[in-house]
Amino acid sequence: MKKTDTFFLIHNYNTVPENLLEYCQDYLIIDASDDEKVIKELEDKNYKHIHVENTGHNLTSYFHFFIDNYDNLPEWIALLKGNIIGRHVTEDFFNRTYDNKWFTYLYQDPTTWERYKKGGDPDSIASLVSEEGFIELNSSWYMKQSHSYRYFYDMDDFMKFVYKNPVIPRYCTFAPGGCYIIHKSQILKNSKTFYKNLNTLMEYRKEYDFPAEAFLVERVLPWIFTSRYEVNPWMEDEGEFARMLSKCEEKVNAYRQWNSLSHKRIRMMFGAKAPDFWEGLV
Questions:
Q1: Is the whole-model pTM more than 0.90?
Q2: What is the 3-state secondary structure (H, E, C) of the chain?
Q3: What is the mean pLDDT of residues 15-42?
């Protein structure tokens, strides 16, 4: 097997990703494991790794690496999970794509093809445009699940918070799991402060039940790496970003209060529509 010169940046949790190391010349394992046997094996085998606090997901690991190595990034980077093969891609797909020298969505799940292809499940919010081309209806359904949110409750407001006048998509196209092959220029199009601020959104609670805002960042990753949208000024200023987040939290609390009014008549007393997120925010 040809070993690629693409740098493998591997977020790892309770596995020993030695199979991935067979594909690459250089790598770093960012290990968030809590299994002592795994931690010891990584150390005993002298794998190049650092141990980090588990935030429940992989995106903060990638962003911290961008920040810490901003002036010395590898030319090509594969953003991977230790268990990507078998979890987010098949071994065959990975064998065909691991050495790509273009922006690549590292996602493929043949078990969904019948459901997501043309003529599949008409009620599904997801579809496929190719084996790795996953698209999902922009409904922010994940913000209403078990992971709680503090600053945003839908994708639309989040995109408008990050970017000036973005097109609000009908569908989101992304790699479920957040794994991609990217060029360093796609990272450097954004500042270190930009990545720090996004991490703030995903690290205010560090546990397995991570903030729901991480789902938003996961879905906007392709825009982060490929779009030429102009970012809003607070994305480049940590102090202003913190001030804006406090206002966002006030808006979200108002929304929660409105949403807790279960009876339509009571809601009508407070206004037929949910509070406007942007009113008074900027």
A1: yes
A2: CCCECCEEEEEECCCCCHHHHCCECCEEEEECCCCHHHHHHHHHCCCCEEECCCCCCCHHHHHHHHHHCCCCCCCEEEEEECCHHHHCECHHHHHHHCCCCCCEECCCCHHHHHHHCCCCCCCCCEEECCCCCEEEECCCHHHHCCCCCCCCCCHHHHHHHHECCCCCCCEEECCCCCCEEEEHHHHHCCCHHHHHHHHHHHHCCCCCCCCCHHHHHHHHHHHHHHCCCCECHHHHCHHHHHHHHHHHHHHHHHHHHHHCCCCHHHHHHCCCCCCCCCCCCC
A3: 97
